[in-house]
Each structure stands twice: as structure tokens, then as C-alpha cells.
Write a structure and sequence with these properties.
alpha+beta, four-stranded parallel beta sheet, elongated
Length: about 375
């Protein structure tokens, strides 16, 4: 169920507060929504969902193993609505593909004018939700309740779809997650894996060398059966001082005991990543250089890693993660993907599926947009 669908459902439940009652909750009718939420939470797998005598609804998920002493993340919203207007028999109205003009509430003829609410113009093309004009909608804060409930089920659903999609296509379905700078990290992922640990094998956390925190979150994911993907184009020069150099991130993961076969490295194929300022705002974008994959592979060796170990994050491990049986090794029946390296680790010859792409340092084939 989508968040707006939950909002439509919750808005119809009469939870208007009574400021004169002196009780907690101020109106017994608030328990109607509370009991509805408890039942929904239990259906989502939140086993300790409950409501107390004061109409506070609680639910929790266990801490990630090894993080029991860390601060907990709480999501909070209130169920009651303001008594300034009626909250009974609410009739939510969807205004799909809003035209950016004045909005007329059908039951009363009341008009929300753009001149009074200038932000409406920026909503053109979106779907607005209002009442019919006879009641309060109650989006404050039933919209927040809807977002919390939807967040609890979304990740699990996406991971399941990736798994099933892969089964239908005959290969492993993978969900690649981009880790940003948000404080919650992968907490929602770990909560979902508590319910469905078998989905861990289908999850890859990428851009994990953007910060020590992202790296540590990815290491926890690996412990739950997932994979960490180090971006070869991200470093202190391209993204910022907290970024871990890719070759050093691989070495660090190995020193910390991260399962070697679950460490990947990708160039992101000219993909972009956000550069953040000190205040957390996006200050620019950087593009990953395709050549950085070879550079960081070579640096792994120069920094003391055996050639066989340095190759795995960009060859064998990737093939195993995506269940590509013809890739990642040289054997009869596999794709003839071969790299010949010069003594200084420079590319000498590249063969892909038996076809020579580079010979003795000179390109034999070029991409569609290469001259």
C-alpha cells in the first residue's frame, strides 16, 4: 500500500482531540485508529506492536547484532487531529494532475486561491489531497503516520521483487542500494532482514567508501549475507576528505575480516555521485572515471596485495554475486574474457568474449560514442 493510500484510510477515522476533557487521550475515539495501527504493524512483522492505556502506539525492531549499545532510531507521529474544524466523516478528495490553479472544494464551494497559497503553483502536475470542504483533512499528522507505516514495508517488498525477478529471468536478482549521508544508514534494511534473512544475498550496498560510516554499514550488511561495492571513482579529491581511497577500502575490509568473496569494486560507468558541503547540502556532482577501476586494481597490488586477491573484487566476486557462470574465471565453456598486463600492470591486451578489444596497448574496438 502506498503512503497516500494509507493517508486516505487513516483520514476517515475520527480522531479529533478534545481540549476540554482533561484525560489522556483527550477522546476515547482515538483508540479506533490506534488499534487499527497495531493490527497493521503486526501484519508487517512488528511482533511487539501495542497500544497503552494513554493511546500511545509502540512498535520496535531488534538492534542489528553487535549494535545493541548504539543509539536507537525513533520515528514519531501523532494520530489526533485539531478541534478547530470537524474531523468526523472526512471525505478526502484526490485532485490528480493538478493544473496549478485555484482549487474548489466540491461540497462547500470554498476556494483555495493560489494568491493566498502561492506554493500551490509549484504543485502543478502533482496529485493534491484535500477534503470536500466540510471537515478537516487531518494530514497533520496522519500523513506522518502513513509515511512511517509505508517505510516499514517498502524495503522488504523491493528486495523480494528483485529476488523473484531474478528467478523468472534465470539469474540472481540483485537490489543495488546507494548509501548517502543520512544518519540512519541501512537501519531500515537491517530491520527488514530480521524478518527475511534470506534476502540478504540479494542486496548490494554501493558507494560505500564515501565515508567511514557508510563503510561500516556495508560491513554489517555483508555479515548478514549481502555484498559491499566500492566505487573506484570516489576518493578524497573527487568527493571529499572523508572518502576512503578504493584500494585502501578493500585492504581495510580484508583486515577487518569482511568476507573476501563479498567485496566488489565497480567504476559506476561514468555515473555521478553527490558532493556534500559542511552543512549537508549538495554542493556538486562528480562523475566516475572508467579508468579508475584499473588504477585502483593496480594500486591494490602496489600496496602489497597479492594479484589473485586484487583481481577478485572486479572479476570473480562480481560474477558470483550476479550468478554469471560464464564470467569471472578462465575455463572451457566460459566466456573468453582475458586481460594481459605489462610488468608495470598497464593494460597490454584485452580480449572480451574471444574478440580482441585492445592489442599491445592500442584499441582495436571503440564504443558507439568514441572517436
Amino acid at each position: 500500500m502506498r503512503a497516500y493510500e494509507r493517508l486516505l484510510q487513516y483520514a476517515r477515522v475520527y480522531t479529533t482531540s478534545d481540549p476540554e476533557s482533561g484525560t489522556h487521550p483527550s477522546a476515547a475515539r482515538e483508540f479506533d485508529l490506534a488499534h487499527m495501527l497495531v493490527e497493521e504493524m503486526k501484519n508487517l512483522g512488528i511482533e511487539d506492536a501495542r497500544v497503552d492505556e494513554h493511546c500511545y502506539v509502540y512498535g520496535s525492531l531488534p538492534a542489528t547484532p553487535g549494535c545493541e549499545d548504539k543509539p536507537a532510531l525513533g520515528l514519531i507521529a501523532h494520530m489526533d487531529t485539531a478541534p478547530d474544524a470537524s474531523g468526523e466523516n472526512v471525505n478526502p478528495i484526490l485532485h490528480e494532475n493538478y493544473d496549478g490553479g485555484d482549487v474548489t472544494l466540491p461540497a462547500t464551494g470554498m476556494v483555495m486561491k493560489v494568491s493566498s497559497f502561492p506554493f500551490l503553483a509549484s504543485m502543478k502536475g502533482e496529485t493534491l489531497i484535500t477534503t470536500d470542504g466540510t471537515t478537516l483533512l487531518g494530514a497533520d499528522d496522519k500523513a506522518g503516520v502513513a509515511e512511517i507505516m509505508t517505510a516499514a514495508e517498502t524495503l522488504l517488498a523491493v528486495a523480494t521483487e528483485a529476488r523473484v525477478g531474478g528467478m523468472l529471468r534465470g539469474f540472481i536478482g540483485m537490489l543495488i542500494m546507494h548509501i548517502g549521508a543520512a544518519a540512519e544508514g541501512l537501519s531500515c534494511v537491517f530491520a527488514a532482514l530480521e524478518r527475511a534473512p534470506h534476502l540478504g544475498r540479494h542486496l548490494i550496498a554501493t558507494h560505500i567508501n564515501r565515508s567511514p560510516f557508510a563503510f561500516s554499514e556495508a560491513a554489517k550488511l555483508v555479515a548478514k549475507g549481502g555484498f559491499m561495492d566500492i566505487s573506484s571513482g570516489l576518493n578524497a579529491q573527487t568527493l571529499g576528505p572523508d572518502t576512503l581511497k578504493p584500494s585502501e577500502a578493500i585492504a581495510l575490509a580484508m583486515r577487518q575480516g569482511v568476507a573476501k568473496e563479498r567485496i566488489l569494486m565497480s567504476s559506476d560507468g561514468n555515473g555521478s555521485a553527490a558532493r556534500y558541503g559542511d552543512d549537508g547540502s549538495v554542493s556538486g556532482l562528480v562523475a566516475s572515471d572508467l579508468g579508475s577501476l584499473h588504477t585502483e586494481f593496480a594500486d591494490c597490488i602496489k600496496e602489497g596485495m597479492p594479484l589473485s586477491e586484487a583481481l577478485c573484487p572486479i572479476t570473480h566476486n562480481v560474477a558470483q554475486a550476479f550468478s554469471l557462470s560464464r564470467k569471472g574465471h578462465i575455463t572451457v565453456g566460459a566466456d573468453a574474457d582475458i586481460l594481459l598486463l605489462a610488468p608495470d600492470l598497464a593494460l597490454h591486451t584485452v580480449i572480451a568474449r574471444g574478440e580482441c578489444m585492445m592489442r599491445e596497448g592500442s584499441l582495436c574496438k571503440k564504443g558507439t560514442f568514441e572517436e
